Amino acid sequence: MDEDLLAQVGFSHYRLGYDITDQMIKKYRNILFVKSNYSSAKGDYIRGEKKFIGYRDRILKEKRKMLCTTVNSLDFLESGKEIIAYINKNKKDKIDCIICDEICALGAIYEANQNKIKLPKDLAIAGIGNSQIVQLSFPKLTTVDINAYQIGKKAISQIFEFDNNIVTDTGYRFVKGETA
After folding, report:
1. 22-47, pLDDT tens digit by residue?
2. Which helix (H) or strand (E) covers residue 47, if one does?
3. Among 65, 78, 108, 132, which one is least packed by beta carbons within 10 Å?
4. What is the tens place of the pLDDT at every residue in 54-81?
5. 148, 150, 155, 161 alpha-carbon torsion, rounded to 10°
6. pLDDT tens, 88-117?
7. Which long-range contacts (CB under 8 A, 24 or more apart) does 11-14 make?
8. C-alpha 73: how far from its chain's center?
9. Rounded mean pLDDT of 127-144?
């Protein structure tokens, strides 16, 4: 393998942000994008920012208002409280849907249940990740499966040079749950 070329495995974070917003925009009017501050690592920030830019571009294409907040996603309970508090503080925006990473989504589901907010009737929640923990949410989270296992498998193949592809797009898929 040419040492000047860096092998890449994964998916377009921009496209994911755009596509999940595109799915939610069909049913919901005022969509809040929740950024996570779980890591100061450059790669984490860049991936999250690319998802946000995809969201932004899709929202602006519809000439809708961009709604965004940042929460502490290291603690799902705290992030859920922050999200619901933001929605309650900004009632004039009539937020009816949130898009966020899975940890924040699980916290938002918990907090919504605690506050008797009916999901998805009063608030839809769409997450990103589809880890096994999602199976424990009630109602079941609507999410995006980012094919994490496939990413890991392809990355190992490239590290050990079993696979000569320079770029491997593993894609993602929407997983219909009960929250959106």
Report:
1. 999 999 999 999 998 866 555 567 88
2. helix 42-61
3. 132
4. 999 999 999 999 999 999 877 889 999 9
5. 170
6. 999 999 999 999 999 999 999 999 999 999
7. 11/146, 11/147, 11/169, 11/170, 11/171, 11/172, 12/50, 12/169, 13/47, 13/48, 13/50, 13/51, 13/54, 14/50, 14/51, 14/53, 14/54
8. 12
9. 91
From the list 162, 174, 167, the residue with the least C-alpha distance to 11 is 167
The pLDDT of 141-149, averaged and rounded, is 91
Peptide bond into 139 cis (omega under 30): yes
Per-residue tokens: 112: 């919504």
Nearest to 14 by CA among 36, 62, 42, 47: 47
d(CA 101, CA 127): 5
141 backbone dihedrals φ, ψ, rounded to 5°:
-70, 135
Instruction: Using the structure block, give the residue that is written with the tokens 């919504």.
Output: 112
Helices and strands, counts by H and E, the chain: 5, 8
Instruction: Decide: helix, strand or coil at residue 141.
Output: coil
Residues in the chain: 180
Of 159, 82, 13, 47, whose CA–CA distance to 105 is shortest? 82
CA 120 to chain centre: 17
